[in-house]
Amino acid sequence: MTAPFLKIENLYVSIEGKEILKDFSLEIKGGEIHAIMGPNGTGKSTLASAIMGHPKYEITSGSIHMDGEDVLEMEVDERAQAGLFLAMQYPSEISGITNADFLRSAINAQREEGDEISLMKFIRKLDEKMDVLDMDNEMSQRYLNEGFSGGEKKRNEILQLLMLEPKIAILDEIDSGLDIDALKIVSTGVNAMRGPEFGSLIITHYQRLLNYITPDYVHVMMQGRIVKSGGPELAQRLEAEGYDWIKEELGIEDETVNS
What we know:
By secondary structure, this protein is α/β, with parallel strands linked by helices. It has nine helices and twelve strands. The strands form three sheets. It has a six-stranded mixed β-sheet with strand order 6-9-10-3-11-12, sandwiched between helices. Strands 2-1-4-5 form a four-stranded antiparallel β-sheet, with helices on one face. It is globular.
């Protein structure tokens, strides 16, 4: 199988006429973990939503391609079927649909008609992945995220990741609100996916997540674009010194662009 390849070129994104992303470019290949860090309001979550096709975000220029296919021509469900996945910062609650039903429907939506996953194979896989995340089996029969704590919602997002096995995953602040034990478990789930057929973009504010999921590349985002890239040592320096040294080095004024 060919390694996946997500290519974003010269992307400009606006919300209600306000430009958020400005000339943003990034390439992610299978086997690579990229981390994006940056101050609040620099466009990190906007990037995630724009890639997945949220209608609130208007792409005014640039391109996104997944394995050579034009992502911007795809509907949201087609992007998921192409192998893109978003673990959201604030997962939605859906009453009346159990975790298990949602996951089985999502898996089958990626398959050809007549090639649906069997119930027994699905149950075995679900039990295995829930064990990886130290999740109680009764959670599979609870309505999707309804009444879940913040930590349970984040584990549930990673459970979806493990069950759906996407090609490229965008993880938007999956560490937000997690204690150390939950952070380790969630990181274990992400690390279980690492390999040549999987790439990921991790959006985070904190070095602590990157202590458990070691990135291949770290990018600093300011004013809607990447301004500096490096290895894991860049995240360590940001943790120790903050962002002022980058602003000073590049002559960037202290301002934000929104979300």
